């Protein structure tokens, strides 16, 4: 009963405090109510009432803090306790709600300097100020002090100007004033009747002004913008009500201090929990989930009780925690001085003690400084030539280097050996990554660690001067280790600490195995640290994250989830079944792909803007291609990217595999999968000769590595000495090679190799950016929606107009060649210049143009226009479509692709996603009418076909490659 009597008055105040903080949050509807009626009046009066309870609670806090004895060490400890509590809030938010942001962690560790917890800051300051003030002010002086302190509230209320930085009750100044008033009010010995009179008068004035203000605001401004002018904690009558009420019931309101063991720490914890942005945001979200006001109040009641319990229990836990390292005693020893010393002597004494503490810990400080410098240099030399890099990645890299040092020290218990080996190995790591970036425009990846087995070959790739310098550096480091360990044996670790650092290092680096697990706690941490893996371009990831973090980003890569029923027997069954399907298809076909010339032409960012909702052009930029489309097989290709993802579309056309079947972490097979597979079945294997043409760098998307693995015997690219790009031409101010250049080189290839062949042509002319590229763009004057830049659309339209002419000329040229040639032309994705809603217009923003054209020689051999299942296709369909149009026989795998093409809707990554994501999304299916359909609508036969397709893709890319031992891919 004693505890109940002690707790309930203050608990009631805290409940009002919670109501005031949560219910009137902008995320809930009550503060937004803006109608000139009685409900508005009631709303304002209720708000004013909760503010009064909040102010009384603050006054009680100030009174309790003032009653404590003055000790500087307590203030320091309260600051540390604030960091612990705020960090605990961030930790709970991560573990329980799976939410994290490194700015929140910064706020928790730097609450004062970042000014995110003004109440906690005020409590810390008040813990040192108010006990001292209590000894200097007597009872008569307390009334004068209160009068002076309420003057800022009076001025703010009267002039409606925040001249004292009160910020409507959310500033350190406001909280310090209120806490100080509470401390002084606790010393008052006023007449009870007089206090009640002041309380009554202030209450009447407050009610009247709060009640009439909504109507006054509406009558003077015809709006409710100033309706809440008097419902703020800085309104003078409200402050007077709170002071009077507290004076009348101070004894009851502070009685809880008789049953709580650490009042200062309890109140500090309460201040953090009830003002921390993370805690408040989470409380508001939980409250929003309740169906009505009563339910919301009940949620707040539970949260308040939970907050009080945590604030009451946490000091004991913190005390137990600090006792393990005698932290409190160390702070007391460091900061406590004798009273007979002068102030400057006390400061000098404290300064010497602090310096001694820092000096005793110089080994760890030096090690972390080295780790920080190495981390900064590693990011700097990846091409991000500024030391003002992404701080979250810099700190994370420094931490990983530091725990590497500590783990090595734990193993050897040799400080200098561990520090110098860690430093030397990181320098080697940085240099190796620089070499890799220079050679291949990407950092070192985990899959390349297997190359260590061929160390001799790796060393031959390195400049011998660098090897000599490295050898000398290693010798110097070894001599330094021996000398330093002999003459200065710094910092030995005890066994518990050695075990701790080993476990921490294992957990830190081992956690990378879960960084890309969708929805996992570790992924939340990395996303919150602003880690952007950039799997689509590893070099960009290394520049932004540093080589260490980017390396670890690539540890957790799942190629594809194992489909149900995968086994050797299943794959044998699939091979037999589609062998039979191939025989049925081939019974009516007379040609062979190997006797044809097939050109897959990926036209960079090619898609008619007229299909984009809200975009209208003055003229059609592609009339010639539209005419070609009417004469031959054509339609819409559903892209799996928007504004990017070129290599993914190219991969799908060459292999027939679907991006939507891969795991979420495999977003770019060209860089994450193809280089590391021994077998990459593609359409290329159906030809005796294949060539690739790309008027750009071979390093982009690892094409220089991937094309030979696909079976291409020739690759023409910019910078190639063996197969250079000829006929180089750029248009106006566009820095990329024109499509005319691309087609001229393709014609050269057709003329230089007289037999049948496969050509993969990837253009670059219409790649971003789209600013001020061409002259005469007014002919394609654009009308666009909000946010879209018409000049960019017009420049883009002019670019594809040049493509239009180049394609027409190319087709005229191949018509003159007396060999069967079939051109598969397709846009890979739309340019990322349209600011339409992806949720509303997602499908339209993923529709590109395609056509399949066979020249007269091919038509004479039986090539024909396709008329079925052509309106909407995916890039995966082009292999089957090219074979069908040229009347060519198919392999069992191509027979499967043929069935997929005819029997299933087009499939792609969800068009609701914004193309160049770091993670894949689920598949979406589009039928021949351009409508999205669900997998649940598939027939049993269709579902079996889709599952067989997934099994084949898994077996080839992530499984045991059973099909490579059968005739399936031949």
Report on this model:
This protein has 970 residues and is an alpha/beta fold. It contains 36 helices and 13 strands. Strands 5-4-6-1-8-9-3-10 form an 8-stranded mixed beta sheet, with helices on both faces. Helix 3 (72-97) packs antiparallel against helix 4. The termini are far apart.
| Physical arrangement of strands within the biggest beta sheet | 5-4-6-1-8-9-3-10
The tally of helices reads 36
Count of strand segments: 13
Unreliable residue runs: 913-920
For the CA atoms, what is the radius of gyration? 36 Å
Global morphology = globular
Alpha-carbon distance between the termini?
86 Å
Helix content: 55-70%
The description of the largest β-sheet is:
8 strands, mixed
Describe the secondary structure blueprint for this structure.
Layout: H1 2-22, H2 38-67, H3 72-97, H4 102-109, H5 118-136, H6 139-149, H7 151-159, H8 172-185, H9 192-221, H10 236-253, H11 263-273, H12 277-288, H13 293-323, H14 327-335, H15 343-360, H16 362-380, H17 391-412, H18 415-440, H19 455-460, H20 464-487, H21 495-510, H22 521-528, H23 538-545, H24 547-553, H25 568-586, E1 597-603, E2 616-617, H26 623-631, E3 633-638, H27 646-655, H28 669-672, E4 690-694, H29 703-710, E5 714-717, H30 739-752, E6 757-762, E7 782-783, H31 790-815, E8 821-827, H32 838-841, E9 847-854, H33 856-860, E10 872-873, H34 878-885, H35 892-903, E11 906-909, E12 923-926, E13 932-933, H36 940-957
Parallel strand pairs: 1-6, 1-8, 3-10, 4-5, 4-6
Antiparallel strand pairs: 2-7, 3-9, 8-9, 11-12, 12-13
């Amino acid at each position: 009963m004693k505890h109940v009597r002690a707790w309930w008055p203050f608990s009631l105040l805290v409940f009002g405090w919670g109501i005031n903080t949560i219910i009137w949050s902008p995320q809930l509807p009550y503060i937004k109510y803006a109608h000139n009626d009685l409900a508005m009046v009631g709303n304002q009066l209720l708000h004013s009432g909760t503010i009064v309870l909040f102010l009384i609670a603050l006054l009680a806090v100030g009174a309790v803090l003032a009653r404590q004895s003055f000790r500087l060490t307590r203030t320091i400890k309260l600051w540390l306790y604030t960091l612990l509590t705020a960090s605990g809030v961030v930790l709970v938010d991560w573990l329980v709600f799976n939410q994290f942001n490194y700015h929140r962690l910064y706020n928790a560790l730097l609450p004062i300097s970042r000014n995110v917890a003004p109440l906690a800051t005020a409590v810390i300051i008040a813990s040192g100020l108010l006990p001292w003030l209590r000894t200097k002010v007597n009872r008569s002086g307390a009334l004068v002090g209160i009068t002076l302190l309420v003057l800022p509230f009076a001025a703010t209320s009267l002039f409606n100007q925040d001249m004292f930085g009160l910020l409507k009750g959310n500033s350190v100044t406001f909280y310090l004033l209120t806490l100080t008033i509470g401390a002084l009010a606790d010393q008052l010995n006023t007449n009870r009747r007089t206090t009640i009179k002041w309380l009554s008068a202030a209450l009447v004035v407050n009610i009247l002004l709060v009640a009439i203000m909504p109507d006054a605001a509406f009558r003077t401004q015809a709006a409710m913008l100033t309706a809440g002018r008097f419902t703020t904690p800085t309104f003078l009558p409200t402050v007077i009500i709170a002071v009077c009420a507290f004076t009348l019931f101070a004894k009851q309101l502070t009685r809880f201090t008789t049953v709580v063991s650490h009042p200062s720490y309890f109140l500090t914890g309460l201040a953090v929990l009830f003002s921390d942005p993370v805690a408040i945001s989470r409380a508001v979200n939980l409250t929003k989930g309740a169906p009505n006001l009563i339910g919301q109040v009940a949620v707040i009641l539970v949260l308040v009780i939970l907050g009080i319990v945590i604030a009451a229990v946490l000091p004991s836990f913190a005390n137990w925690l600090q006792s393990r390292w005698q932290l409190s005693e160390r702070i007391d020893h460091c900061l406590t001085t004798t009273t007979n010393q002068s102030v400057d002597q006390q400061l000098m004494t404290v300064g010497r003690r602090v310096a001694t503490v820092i000096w005793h810990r110089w080994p760890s400080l030096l090690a972390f400084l080295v780790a920080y410098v190495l981390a900064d240099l590693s990011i700097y030399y990846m091409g991000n030539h500024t030391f003002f890099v992404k701080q979250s990645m810099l700190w994370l890299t420094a931490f990983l280097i530091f725990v590497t040092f500590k783990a090595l020290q734990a193993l050897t218990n040799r400080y200098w050996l561990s520090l110098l080996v860690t430093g030397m190995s990181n320098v080697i790591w940085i240099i190796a990554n620089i070499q890799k970036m220079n050679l291949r425009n990407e950092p070192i990846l985990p899959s390349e660690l297997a190359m260590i087995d061929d160390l001799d070959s790796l060393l031959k790739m390195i400049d011998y001067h660098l090897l000599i310098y490295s050898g000398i550096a290693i010798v110097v480091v070894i001599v330094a280790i021996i000398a330093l360990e002999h003459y200065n044996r710094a910092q030995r670790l005890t066994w518990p600490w050695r075990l701790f650092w080993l476990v921490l290092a294992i957990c830190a680096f081992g956690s990378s195995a879960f960084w890309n697990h969708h929805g996992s706690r570790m992924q939340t941490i990395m996303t919150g640290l602003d880690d952007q893996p950039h799997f689509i371009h590893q070099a960009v990831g290394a520049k932004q994250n540093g080589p260490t973090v980017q390396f670890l980003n690539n540890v957790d890569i799942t190629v594809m989830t194992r489909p149900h029923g995968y086994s050797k027997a299943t794959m044998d069954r699939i091979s037999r079944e589609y062998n039979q399907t191939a025989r049925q298809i081939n019974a009516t076909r007379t040609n062979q792909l190997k006797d044809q010339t097939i050109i897959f032409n990926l036209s960079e960012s090619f898609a008619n803007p007229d299909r984009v909702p809200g975009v209208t052009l003055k003229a059609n930029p592609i009339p010639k291609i539209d005419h070609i489309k009417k004469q031959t097989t054509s339609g819409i290709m559903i892209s799996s990217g928007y504004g990017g993802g070129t290599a993914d579309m190219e991969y799908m056309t060459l292999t027939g595999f679907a991006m939507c079947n891969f795991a979420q972490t495999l977003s770019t097979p060209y860089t994450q999968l193809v280089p590391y597979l021994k077998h990459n079945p593609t359409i290329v294997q159906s030809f005796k000769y294949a060539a690739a043409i790309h008027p750009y760098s071979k390093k982009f998307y690892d094409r220089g590595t991937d094309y030979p693995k696909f079976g291409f015997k020739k690759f023409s690219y910019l910078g190639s000495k063996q197969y250079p790009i000829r006929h180089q031409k750029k248009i106006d101010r566009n820095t990329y090679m024109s499509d005319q250049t691309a087609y001229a080189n393709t014609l050269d290839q057709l003329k230089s190799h007289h037999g049948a062949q496969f050509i993969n042509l990837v253009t670059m002319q219409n790649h971003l950016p789209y600013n001020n590229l061409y002259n005469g763009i007014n002919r394609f004057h654009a009308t666009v929606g909000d946010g879209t830049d018409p000049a960019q659309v017009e420049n883009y339209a002019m670019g594809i107009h040049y493509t239009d002419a180049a394609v027409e000329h190319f087709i005229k040229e191949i018509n003159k060649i007396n060999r069967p040639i079939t051109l598969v032309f397709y846009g890979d994705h739309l340019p990322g210049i349209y600011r339409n809603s992806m949720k509303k217009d997602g499908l339209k923003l993923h529709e590109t143009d395609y056509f399949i054209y066979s020249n007269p020689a091919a038509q004479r051999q039986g090539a024909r226009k396709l008329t079925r299942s052509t309106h909407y296709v995916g890039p995966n369909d082009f292999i089957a479509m090219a074979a069908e149009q040229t009347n060519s026989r198919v392999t069992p795998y191509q027979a499967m692709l043929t069935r997929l093409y005819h029997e299933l809707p087009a499939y792609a990554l969800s068009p609701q996603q914004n193309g160049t994501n770091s993670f894949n999304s689920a598949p979406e299916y589009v039928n021949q009418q351009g409508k999205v359909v669900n997998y649940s609508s598939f027939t049993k036969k269709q579902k079996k076909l889709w599952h067989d397709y997934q099994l084949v893709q898994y077996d080839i890319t992530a499984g045991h490659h059973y099909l490579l031992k059968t005739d399936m891919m031949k």
